[in-house]
Write a structure and sequence with these properties.
The structure is a single chain. By secondary structure, this protein is an all-alpha fold. The protein has 18 helices and five strands. A hairpin with a 2-residue loop joins β3 and β4. It is globular, with a radius of gyration of 22 Å.
Length: 461
Amino acid sequence: MTTIAPDARMAGVARTYPPRAAVVSWIFFDWAAQPYFTLITTFVFAPYFATAIAPNPAAGQSLWGFAMAAAGLAIALLSPVLGAIADASGRRKPWIAGFGTVLVLASCTLWIGKPGDHAVIPLVLTAVALASVGAEFATLFNNAMMPTLVPPARIGRLSGTGWATGYIGGIVSLIIVLGLLAANPETGRTLLGVTPLFGLDPLTRQGDRAAGPLTALWFIIFVTPMFLFTPDYPAKRPLGEALREGLSELKQSIKSLPRQKSLAAFLLANMIYTDGLVSLFAFGGIYAAGTFGWHTIQIGTFGIMLAIAGALGAWFGGKLDDRLGPKRVIAGSLLVLLLSVAAILLVDKDSVLFVKTAPPQAGAALFSSTAERAYLVLGCLIGAAGGPLQAASRTLLIHLAPKDRIAQYFGLFALTGKVTSFIGPLLIGLVTALTASQKAGMAVLVVFFVAGLGLLVRVRD
């Protein structure tokens, strides 16, 4: 496909974009990386850690929050620097390969997390933090490849399709874990009613622990097409020279931000609402486990439903992005998230919006209580809004950022998404620890979405 890129029209130069196979291979990066977020940080390993490895769910939520905060701080400090170096050196794939290796090795380490073994807690949390660093940095450099793949008018659709594909990958990986690997310790059967594959022991929760190695294998298999078929930026200069030039350009970019008011306002808004969204996804499964007593099968089934909603939301949001602009998509998504989180805080195991209901009964069908069903509906709304919010955010950055420093600004984008990302988990951890109430810990997220929405008003797309 050949078209005239906006930055090339003035010079009359035609911009040539790679074939469809290259674009599809790039999209599959989201499919490859998503199981880390779906299986480990949200629906399988995080709730398993809080309810089975940690002393109790509240302590587990608190410890998990501290680990995610440490990872977020490391990502925030290093993202702009690495992005600037990548822009100066030109290459993206070596960085993806390096941080992908960190993700793979750290994910495999999670297998050691046996139930009730408090001695492994420090190592498990360290592995989770390292895996988070690997996944986030690999994603940063993958995002920076977007402007070379399709014309600007199709960036929104590309971003939305990538997020939707990632959600579908998360669904498939979750079905594999719930249906074939993770069994109820009481029945010894998986969600599909079969015994776990490979002789995995339900009593030692080997099916839940297998989420780590599966994430690693999944990433290796499905990221390979991107390395084979998607063209990289050409190399510009050696690493040492790129380091000096990249840091110099980063310093100039940061100094120029006050003069780029829309870009600065967007980065600040992204910093706040991304912190709230990541914290919401990170603790949603843990919160459900503590509130309703859900185990892996219930949480995983909820995760499948939420991921389906997220895939549909991201795909439809990509179309709205190209038609209405990413700012409007972000604003609408934030409103849905804000209302949904506020409503979730009014759902307890025996009440919905202050109305008393029958609590969940032992041995009853999945999600048979009114409160559980209300939580499902609200969770699906969160999933449907979270997908387009993230997809439209990276599209808006591409609209606002200088084209010759796109990786650097994706680094700043990651910085603003992570520099305060320790605050959300830290506040949830601290408030939960001080009050011994998961609901009180989750309530702090409302502030993040309100503040992010207020700042977004100042952005001109």
